[in-house]
Design brief:
This protein is 33% helix and 24% strand. It contains 18 helices and 29 strands. The strands form ten sheets. It has a four-stranded antiparallel sheet with strand order 2-3-1-6, with helices on one face. The protein has a four-stranded antiparallel sheet with strand order 8-9-7-12, with helices on one face. The chain has a four-stranded antiparallel sheet with strand order 14-15-13-18, covered by helices on one side. A hairpin with a 2-residue loop joins strand 4 and strand 5 (79-80). It is found in: Cytoplasm. It comes from Dictyostelium purpureum (Slime mold). Residues 10-88, 98-175, 188-266, 285-363 form the RRM domain.
């Protein structure tokens, strides 16, 4: 269709692009029509992968209009593209003016066929058939006209028309907010519960008969005993009769018990409603407690937390055999004030041999989202530091003042860049940096000096040195003068204990533990190493480096804690 519409801009939106389509590819296609000003393929800010749409700007609005008429649905790298005018004002896109919704489309109808069908009624700003991940039609689409008059004409003419052998529905577009507004649900099936055991089907029919014609009544019976399960269903001929039964009979006493009457629901509806009710009921009063000592059971947990208010439940989670504590549990109070007071007083308090972690219980998806946000904030804060970042993924080197000639030391495994449990001796927790202590110099990748540590001294003059080039490049620039040097002996427990501070001991132990944990848990190695260094004494940590069975047991415990969180 050749449009008489005068465009107000020269910018086009181009959608349905393959991920590999670049600005250069689009330039070759669109510059054939007219002189292109610029092209921008929109990309994910983190991965830089294409979002499958782009904006093409022409110097001349007439060229943009010609491109829309001639290139719409043209295959680019084998896939038809979808072109429409770029609409910068979101209020115009979302207002619904001129927007038409079409459903019950044949699977063979694509963007072009939909455009050809509806273009007879006016100028189309955009046209789309919604598809799934396999690029197959979902059977519905949208057409956005320049004016509401065009949309009204399309609705009047096409609604109910047969297209490709199927009668289509065409109506005004409604936003998700409008569609989500509650409407009265019509139903004919009524669910009853809290029935007395002696109630029969005939008695229930007698109760319900005044409301209208009943098509069926069924009281659910136990298969073994044949006795009533206490609930039933009644199906009415009209929705009004069912509605009246629910409004009038619900809560009335029937055979000595208050009767519940409500709309019969599908299982998925009922589960969603129960879940929402549960989350609403216990929001702000349910506490999550972790790092619980193995000696604490349900009764002890209740006793410890009872001083802050009335507890409705207290449970320590157990393993599958219900014998061993998983180290975390839940305590539920009757009011948010009681729960808040318990969090304030108990978080960090020593109970048994461990400090408790106490917080309000949250849904797993909410907790995960918060943790991801916190991680991103920490990462951004680290990036804002004045120190320049070093070689990505490189290990952290602690180089004391030179005492003996350096020899080559092959690092077994580089420590992860954002290792939360990394040795705490790194100033400011800035990883991926080469740190120089005293008069020492940064070493090439894989090198460190041997010999005793200089009395464990950590001069205050230690400053981070931003690596100008990747450490691996430095290593290639310097001759390795270690052909005849002996390898450094593995640290012993006594040598680690001889270190003057726990920070330095953690550094040595972390270098031993991390590669061992990385062998079985490469993605979690950093977290697990940090957890072990924070929670175990030096002797036990060293024992883990010598006993794989003990280490595997601790790794499993750490994974359980991470999964619980």
């Amino acid at each position: 269709m050749t449009s008489s519409f005068t465009p107000i801009s020269s910018s086009l939106y181009v959608g349905d692009l393959l991920p590999e389509v670049s600005e250069q590819t689009l330039f070759e296609v669109f510059n054939q029509v007219g002189l292109v000003s610029n092209i921008r393929v929109c990309r994910d800010t983190n991965t830089r992968r294409s979002l499958s749409y782009a904006y093409v700007n022409y110097y001349n609005a007439a060229d943009a209009e010609r491109a829309l008429d001639t290139l719409n649905n043209t295959p680019i790298r084998g896939k038809p593209c979808r072109i429409m005018w770029s609409q910068r004002d979101p209020s115009l896109r979302k207002s619904g003016v001129g927007n038409v919704f079409i459903k019950n489309l044949d699977k063979g109808i694509d963007h072009k066929a939909l455009y050809d069908t509806f273009s007879a009624f006016g100028n189309i700003l955009s046209c789309k058939v919604v598809t799934d991940d396999n690029n197959s039609s979902k059977g519905f689409g949208f057409v956005h006209y320049e004016s509401q008059d065009s949309a009204d004409k399309a609705i009047a003419k096409v609604n109910g028309m047969m297209i490709n052998g199927q009668k289509v529905f065409v109506g005004p577009f409604k936003s998700s907010k409008e569609r989500g507004q509650p409407t009265e649900i019509k139903f004919t099936n009524v669910f009853f519960k809290n029935l007395a055991e002696d109630v029969t089907s005939d008695q229930l029919k007698e109760l319900l008969a005044p409301y209208g014609t009943i098509t069926n009544v069924a009281i659910m019976l136990d298969e073994k005993t044949g006795k009533s399960k206490g609930f039933a269903f009644a199906n009415f001929e009209s929705a009004d009769a069912a509605k009246n039964v629910v409004e009038i009979e619900n809560g009335k006493v029937f055979h000595g018990k208050p009767l519940y009457a409500g709309r019969a629901q599908k299982k998925i509806e009922r589960e969603a409603e129960l879940k929402h009710t549960f989350e609403t009921k216990y929001q702000g009063v349910n506490l999550y407690i972790k790092n619980i000592d193995d000696s604490i059971d349900n009764d002890k947990l209740r006793e410890v937390f009872s001083q802050f208010g009335t507890i409705t439940s207290a449970v320590v989670m157990k393993d599958d055999k219900a014998t061993t504590s998983k180290g975390f549990g839940f305590v539920c109070y009757t009011s948010p004030d009681e729960a808040t007071r318990a969090v304030t007083e108990m978080n960090g308090r020593m109970i048994g041999t461990k400090p408790l972690y106490v917080a309000l219980a949250q849904r797993k998806d909410i907790r995960r989202a918060q943790l991801e946000m916190q991680h991103q904030q920490k990462f951004k804060a680290g990036m804002r530091q004045t120190m320049a970042p070093a070689y990505s993924g490189g290990p952290v080197f602690f180089t004391p003042a030179p005492v003996t000639p350096a020899v080559v030391y092959q690092q077994m495994m580089p420590r992860p860049r954002n290792w939360n449990g990394a040795p705490v001796g790194v100033p400011g927790n800035q990883y991926g940096m080469n740190y120089v202590r005293g008069g020492g110099q940064p070493r090439p990748n894989g090198q460190r000096p041997t010999g005793p540590r200089p009395n464990g001294q950590r001069p205050d003059s230690a400053q981070p040195i931003a690596t100008q080039q990747p450490a691996v490049d430095q290593a290639t620039q310097q001759p390795q003068a270690a052909s005849g040097a002996s390898q450094e002996a593995a640290p012993t427990l006594s040598s680690i204990l001889a270190l003057p501070t726990r920070d330095q001991q953690n550094v040595a132990l972390g270098e031993l533990l991390y590669p061992l944990i990385h062998n079985s848990q490469p993605e979690l190695a950093g977290k697990i190493t940090g957890m072990l260094l924070d929670s175990l004494p030096v002797e036990e940590l060293f024992a883990l480096t010598q006993r794989s069975d003990l280490l595997n047991e601790k790794i499993k415990e750490a994974i359980d804690v991470l999964n619980a969180n």
